[in-house]
Amino acid sequence: MFPCNRGSQDPQIVSMNSSSYNYNVSSGLSYRDSLSTAVAKNVIVLALGLTINYINGTLIHTFRKHQVFYVNPRYILFIHLVLNDMIQLTTTISLFVFSYVFYKINTSFCCLIITFAVFTTLNTPLNLAVMAVECYIAICLPLRHAEFCTIKRTYTLIAWIWALSAVSTLPDVFIVVATKPVQLFYSTIFCERDNLFSHPISLKKRDVSYIIYLIIVWLTLFFTYFKIFFAAKEAKEAKEAKSRDGDAKKARNTILLHGFQLLLCMLTYVAHEVIKGLLYWFPKHYAHVVFVSYIMIQMFPRFVSPMVYGLRDKTFRQHLKKYLLCTVRPSIKP
C-alpha cells in the first residue's frame, strides 16, 4: 500500500511538527500522488538505482580482479568513490521507497540510515578534491608522484575523508540524543534529515559546514585545473614529448569533468533553494518538482562517476567490457 491509498499526504512533501513526546504530520500542504504516479516514480527510481549500482558493482569487481588497479592510488581513490556512491544510492533509494510503502519508520532505524546517507553525501566532494590533487601531482610534479602518492597515504587520506564527514555529522546525532526524549527513539517518524536533526544548532552547523566544504573543494579544483592548464600550455609551447602534452590535456579534461560532477554534487547543499526556484516557475507541480530534484541532485551525479573515470580510462575500459557484458569465460583446467 502506498501512502496515497491511506489518504495521507505525499511523503516527499509532508513536514513534521514535533512537540515534547509526539511527532505528528502537519496538515499544511495536501499534495498527493495517485497510485499510478506513485508506482511510476518508484519504478523509475529503482530502475535507475539498480542500473547505476550494477555498473558500479562491475567496476568494483573489475578492480578486485586485476592487481594493476589496487596498487595504483588513482584507481584506489576512484573505487572508493564508486563504493561510496553505492552506499549513498542504496540509503537514499531505501528512504524514498520507505516513504511510500511504510510512510513512517522507527526513529532509531531512520537515524542510522540518515547518518550513512549524510556521511556518503559529504564524502563525494572531498573524494573528488583529493582525486584532482592526485591528478595535479601526476602532471605537474611527475618526478615526485611516486613519493607523494603512495598506497599507504592514499588509504590514510580516505580515512581522513570519513573522519571529516564524521566531524560534520556525528554532532547532530549527539544533539538528538541529548535534547530529545527517549520515547522518540521507540516511536515512528517520517524519515527526513530536517525532521530528525531539527535542533537550531544542527541547522546552523549544517549551513556553516556546507559553506566551508563548498569553498575548500572549489578552491582546490580551481587551483589544480589552472596548474594543469598552464602545464599543458607550456608543454605545447616547448614542443615537448607528445605523450606528456596528451596526458596534460587528458588531465585537464578530467578536471573539467570533475568540476561538472562536483557542481551536481554541490546541488545537495543548495537543494532547498533549488526547489524554491523551481516552484517559482512551476507552483502547481510541487510533488513533481521534488521528485525531479531528487533525480537530478541525488541520482544523476552518481551516474556520472563511472562515465567520467571508468569508461574514459583506457586500462579500466579494456577489462571492464568483459565483466559489464558478462563475456568472461572460466578457464578450463586439464
UniProtKB/TrEMBL annotation:
PROSITE patterns found in the cross-reference section: G_PROTEIN_RECEP_F1_2
Q: What is this protein called?
A: Olfactory receptor 51B2-like
Identify the PANTHER family for this entry: G_PROTEIN_RECEP_F1_2 DOMAIN-CONTAINING PROTEIN (PTHR26451), ODORANT RECEPTOR-RELATED (PTHR26451:SF998)
Q: What are the G-protein coupled receptors family 1 profile domain coordinates in residue numbering? A: 55-309
Domain of life per record:
Eukaryota
**InterPro entries, A to Z:** GPCR1_Superfamily_Member, GPCR_Rhodpsn, GPCR_Rhodpsn_7TM
* Molecular functions per Gene Ontology: G protein-coupled receptor activity; odorant binding; olfactory receptor activity
- The record's principal subcellular location, in a coarse class, is membrane
This protein's GO cellular component annotations are: membrane
Cellular localisation: Membrane
Q: Which UniProt keywords apply?
A: Membrane, Transmembrane, Transmembrane helix
Q: Which residues cross the membrane?
A: 38-55, 75-98, 105-122, 128-145, 157-178, 210-232, 253-271, 291-311
Show the taxonomic lineage.
Answer: Eukaryota, Metazoa, Chordata, Craniata, Vertebrata
